[in-house]
Amino acid sequence: MHRTAYLFLLFTTLLWGGNVLAGKLAIDHISPMTLVFLRRVLAVLIMLPIGWRTLREDWSVVRRHWLLLGGLGACGFTFFNAIFYTALNYTTAINVSIEQAAIPIVIILANFVLFRLRVNRVQIAGVVLTIIGVALIASHGDLRQLLKLDLNFGDAIMLIAVLCYSFYSVGLRLKPAIRWQSLMLALSIAALVTSLPFFLREVAAGKVVVPDARGWAIAFYTAIGASVVSQILYIRGNELIGANRAGLFINLVPIFGTLLSVLIVGETFQLYQGVALVLVLGGISLAEYSGRKMAI
Question: What DSSP assignment string belongs to 223-280?
């Protein structure tokens, strides 16, 4: 069971790493909130033929839990991405990467406060190792750069994004017993509705960049890979091993994003990137081994 979860979560973070690269390639080809909105439109169009029948059959359950499902879709799908893109306009990629590494910690704390789920010292050590790996990749191999971080408005709202995705991950524990097709379609519709105000605000501000061919390609990738397939796998990974253990894999996102930049964009592979990958994978392995022993 846990091996299946590992494969799901590794592929999820690989797709999310591709989303980081897509965000870089999107500049001047599609504006941020237009991308957020279009990926939600496309995700709903993809999920409609897959989940419409099951959603109708599960409608009585969905209707009773519409507030929870709406909140999950808004927090995990819309607010996180909208705030993430906005934060990058005010702060650096280094700051954002470091702050995003706090997601597993917030998940662990929230699970303890809400559900009294405990972790042991070995798991905490694994979390620390993954954070060091993220810090290494974010600082381009020079941890002294972290001392120069200048916190600003972008960092403040990025912390809100961290809370959004952490509570989404923890909230999946409360999702109703409906089929995955119904769940994904309901979450996608909620995300579409909540992404509309961000798009309209960008239109009103005159900051829309109409997508060209590359912009549409990026929108389709983020819809299929980063919005539909990855979320299905992440939800399933949470079901199999729990949010505490699944959330730790999120720290692979900046690692995969950097490695994909090397492979696709042609950036030079550096030694610190290899060291960071070893630290993050080692931290996940250490925490996961301890977590499995606690679960037995």
Answer: IIIIIIIHHHHHHHHHHHH-HHHHHGGGGGHHHHHHHHIIIII-PPP-HHHHHHHHHH
pTM, rounded to two decimals:
0.87
The angle that helices 230-241 and 180-204 make with each other, rounded to 10 degrees, is: 130
What is the identity of the amino acid at 204? A
Question: pLDDT, tens digit, for every residue of 236-294?
Answer: 999 998 888 888 898 888 888 888 888 887 778 788 888 888 888 888 888 877 766 66
Give the chain's domain count. Answer: 1
Distance CA 237, CA 246 (A): 6
- Among candidate residues 186, 100, 181, the one with its CA nearest the CA of residue 138: 100
- CA distances to 8, 9, 16, 18, 283 from 248, rounded to whole Å, are 13, 10, 14, 18, 9
Domain span holding position 158? 2-295
| pLDDT tens for each residue of 58-106 | 999 999 999 999 999 999 999 998 888 788 778 766 677 778 888 888 8
By the 8 A CB rule, do 176 and 61 touch? yes
CB 93 within 8 A of CB 233: no
What is the reported pLDDT for 42? 96
Q: Return the DSSP state at 65.
A: T
